[in-house]
Glycosyl hydrolase family protein (Pseudomonas amygdali pv. lachrymans), 203 residues
Amino acid sequence: MADFPQEAQNRIEDHGIIGDMRSAALIANTGSIDFCCWPDFDSPSIFTALLDTPDAGIFQLAPDLPGARRLQIYLPDTNVLQTRWISEDAVVEVTDLMPIGEDQDDLPRIVRRVQVRFGEATIRMRCRVRMDYSRAETTARVDGQDICFEAEGQPGMRLSAATPLQLQQQDAVAEFHMHKGQTVEFILGGIDDPNVAAGKCSR
């Protein structure tokens, strides 16, 4: 499940960036978050595949559409990034954003929304959080419908989704089929954040 093809490390120029004025994430046109320090710009990283290998932390979300043309755009006048796959069989969009918290103490959230605009496609997701530049031993566990990530001395994180999540070793994974007009959302944020829960995700 959720096996992604082995690809060369994404080039820096193939990334867009999202942020909430507290933290930021670099997202490749392959649909993977390759770099993110969390919860602050100067915090240790949770994803560092841009500088290392996917084992150092990555958040992959993409359709299984070999040979599809890919492009990235920002929605007008926003820091909302959209990655699009275009093929004869389907058109799929992943929209990424980090909403600004209502309170200055609110921890950042990464919201990832996948939608099929045309046709149908199988979608794969793998969230591999590796805290403190992958130096900390990050463990993942199931908590209800969510997956939680924890490491000693690091703030805990929670991944929620509008589709069932499974635990594969220390990764959260999902694989599901979508048709035109369907939407599935993922939210990654603080482990105790009430805005990060399966019921908060849209579909």
Notes: The chain has one domain: 13-200. The chain is about 0% helix and 50% strand. The radius of gyration is 16 Å.
